[in-house]
């Protein structure tokens, strides 16, 4: 199992996520991607096509998105909320994105994601 680097905390809209929580969510997403499984009966993690054109620290992709929750719980299925962590297929953390403040079903970057 790949080891993930601890990323900095982030803000998605008005929601703050600690570095520890981001790391936990990324680790869960990584395990599910590596096992070819999903959280509960959801479709997450699933392929993220990056239609918005984020740079994601220069990583080439492919990318996977996985919900991050304002409750601080690691996503296990159900309603995903607006915020996501993005990892690549080798489990490197690419960034965090949100539907909050974006038009339609698109995303904007959370703090630290360009």
UniProtKB/TrEMBL annotation:
The keyword Nucleus does not apply. It is an enzyme of class 4 (lyase). This is ribonuclease T1. It catalyses: [RNA] containing guanosine + H2O = an [RNA fragment]-3'-guanosine-3'-phosphate + a 5'-hydroxy-ribonucleotide-3'-[RNA fragment]. SUPFAM superfamilies: Microbial ribonucleases. GO terms for molecular function: hydrolase activity; ribonuclease T1 activity; RNA binding. It comes from Ophiocordyceps australis. Keywords: Disulfide bond, Endonuclease, Hydrolase, Lyase, Nuclease. The keyword NADP does not apply. Belongs to the ribonuclease N1/T1 family. It comes from the Eukaryota. Its EC number is 4.6.1.24.
């Amino acid at each position: 199992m790949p080891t993930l680097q601890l990323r900095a905390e982030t803000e998605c809209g008005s929601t703050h996520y600690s570095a520890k929580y981001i790391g936990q969510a990324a680790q869960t997403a990584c395990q599910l991607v590596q096992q070819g499984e999903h959280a509960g009966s959801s479709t997450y993690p699933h392929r993220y096509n990056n239609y918005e054109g984020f740079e994601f620290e220069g990583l080439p992709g492919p990318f996977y998105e996985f919900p991050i929750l304002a409750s601080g719980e690691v996503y296990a299925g159900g309603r995903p909320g607006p915020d996501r962590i993005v990892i690549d297929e080798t489990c490197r953390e690419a960034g965090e994105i949100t539907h909050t403040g974006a038009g339609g079903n698109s995303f904007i970057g959370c703090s630290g994601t360009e």
